[in-house]
Specification:
The complex is a heterodimer of chains A (257) and B (261). Chain A is an alpha/beta fold and 257 residues long. Chain A folds into two domains: 180 residues, Rossmann fold (3-Layer(aba) Sandwich); 71 residues. Chain A has a six-stranded mixed sheet, with helices on both faces. In chain A, helix 3 crosses helix 4, helix 4 packs across helix 5 and helix 5 runs parallel beside helix 6. The mean pLDDT of chain A is 92. Chain B has 261 residues and is mainly alpha-helical. Chain B has one domain. Chain B is 85% helix and 0% strand. Classes of the chains: A alpha/beta (257), B mainly alpha (261). Chains A and B meet through strand 6 and helix 3 of A and helix 5 of B.
Chain lengths: 257, 261
């Protein structure tokens, strides 16, 4: 599958001191597929995303984008491969000192894809795609509600029309209705742009809405992967316990160790 | 036997941590200096940092300089009058201020005001993933956040110190003429007579070094902060303490280099 995969993760390992977080993660994501990685808190989901983004160097393994290993590619080539990625951070990570339109057009300006004189108008167009009007363009992030901040962060992530999109806990901190709205926007954006996406979450409702496929990360490895529609009939006791939120089962919480 | 070796292990840990810290600081500084020399240059960020250091620190530095000049004149009169050497007040005030007190006190005040703010701002950006977000938006965080602040520190602090020197001398002038019967013309003549260009330039060079140090410490400790609000708080404290101590230590080394070489 890795020959035709947009993103392939091969034998990825990462430890912090004596704590092994990723212990040989293997994952293939076909082009235009929405993959959701589920797993408990502290299971290494965020570390996996940060390794793909190049924010954390893994100890071992390969990360292939379009068949090229970004970990061994020359710096400029690795940067070009990663420039295809748009990222939605868990809490938005909007720049406090920049207005909404400056946040949205930040990546376009940094990559020289647009003139500053055109940036505000382009940002307003992108904001419209996530359901926000021009009135918010000149506000600052601290003047927005949590849901609006998430929308602006999504607008920033899609502004450069990335071929790959990563979503870190996209519905965290939102009420169920706003969570569903954000999920709907994510699905719309990913489909419209034809992007390949990876979302990490422990919100199963969200996973069901945005994922074509679901993989479960446990003890630093992918323990199950399949179509989103099959997750409730996976037959995997780890997946069953997780999606049903049962206290008893093979997953032992850290408190018990 | 194992317990006997505990102090050795602790010493080893401290040494390794120190070496690791210095290595991290060295790499950070080198990256920031490279960022100063290669495009893209972030002029907007430079302007913001310059205004923060140079303009908004002006009131606190000005007050410090005026009162320091006034106290210096009072103390010099009290001490020197025992030897009938009151006429030395203008020269003592101007030399103390331009060579030492102007750069050091302005540096310490700016370290408290701006160094802490830089550490808090960058630290908050770190713990809220804003620095990671910069990387994902094709922007080098060190070039974007650190390099403009370093340049602003190097340029703004000497300008502040120049103002501090003038206001400090004015403070001394005010006390000497109003309380000790100096004539304005004599005071200014004495000040001018004993002041050389090297006295002012040495102070300005010191302040440029201090400006770099303050910005570097603020950015470095902010950049490596971890663990939420508590981490940002401790980064802020560390930045101010480190910058203050380094200012005093560098002042000694630079004074030795300028005046005893």
């Amino acid at each position: 599958m890795s020959e035709c995969a947009k993103i392939s993760v091969r034998g990825l390992r990462k430890s912090f001191g004596t704590k092994i977080v990723l212990d040989g993660v293997d994952l293939d994501i076909a082009p235009r597929t929405a993959m959701v990685v589920i797993g408990g808190s502290g299971s290494g989901k965020s570390v996996l995303l940060k390794c793909i983004l190049g924010l954390i160097p893994p100890d071992d393994g390969q990360i292939l984008i379009d068949g090229e290993d970004v970990l061994t590619a020359p710096t400029s080539r690795a940067r070009a491969l990663r420039d295809q990625i748009g990222m939605l951070f868990q809490n938005g990570a909007l720049f406090d000192s920049e207005s909404v339109w400056e946040n949205v057009s930040f990546g376009l300006l940094a990559r020289g894809l647009i003139q500053r004189s055109r940036a505000r108008a382009r940002a307003v167009e992108v904001l419209a795609q996530v359901g926000l009007g021009e009135t918010v363009a000149d506000l600052f992030p601290n003047e927005l509600s949590g849901g609006m901040q998430k929308r602006v962060a999504l607008a920033r992530a899609i502004a450069a029309e990335p071929a790959i999109m990563l979503f870190d806990e996209p519905t965290t901190g939102l009420d169920p209705i706003m969570g569903a709205v954000i999920d709907g926007l994510i699905v719309d954006c990913v489909k419209r742009l034809g992007s390949t996406s990876i979302a990490i979450t422990h919100d199963m409702a969200s996973a069901g809405r945005i994922g074509d496929r679901i993989a479960m990360l446990f003890d630093g490895r992918i323990v199950w992967e399949g179509n989103a529609a099959e997750v409730r009939a996976s037959g995997n006791p780890l997946v069953d316990q997780f999606i049903n939120g049962r206290r008893e089962g093979p997953i032992k919480m850290a408190l018990r160790r | 036997m194992i317990r006997l070796l505990d102090p050795v292990a602790a010493l080893g840990r401290v040494t390794l941590n120190l070496v690791s810290f210095l290595g991290e600081l060295g790499l950070f500084t080198a990256s920031a200096i490279v960022g100063l020399l290669r495009p893209p240059f972030y002029l907007r960020n430079f302007s913001r940092a310059f205004a923060e250091i140079g303009f908004f620190s002006l009131p606190v530095v000005a007050m410090t300089a005026i009162f320091t000049g006034m106290v210096l004149a009072l103390q010099t009169y009290t001490g020197f009058s025992r030897f009938a050497a009151q006429s030395a007040i203008p020269s003592v005030v101007v030399l103390s201020l331009t060579r030492e007190l102007g750069p050091v006190l302005a540096g310490l005040m700016v370290a408290g005001r701006v160094g802490s703010a830089m550490a808090a701002e960058i630290g908050t950006m770190r713990v809220t993933d804003q620095i990671d977000a910069l990387s994902t938006l094709a922007t080098d965080p060190i070039r974007y956040l650190v390099a403009p602040r370093l340049l602003a520190g190097v340029i703004a602090l000497p300008l502040l110190v120049l103002v501090a020197d003038i206001l400090g001398v004015a403070g001394g002038f005010l006390v000497a003429t109003s309380r000790f019967g100096f004539s304005a013309a004599d005071y200014l003549h004495n000040t001018q007579q004993y002041l050389h260009t090297a006295d002012v330039t040495s102070g300005l060079i010191k302040s440029a070094v201090f400006g770099f140090t303050i910005a570097l410490m603020g950015c470095f400790f902010g950049y490596r902060s971890r663990g939420g609000a508590q981490g940002v708080g401790s980064a802020t404290t560390s930045a101010v303490v480190a910058a203050s101590i380094l200012i005093l230590a560098l002042d000694y080394l630079l004074t030795q280099a300028f005046f005893t070489a």
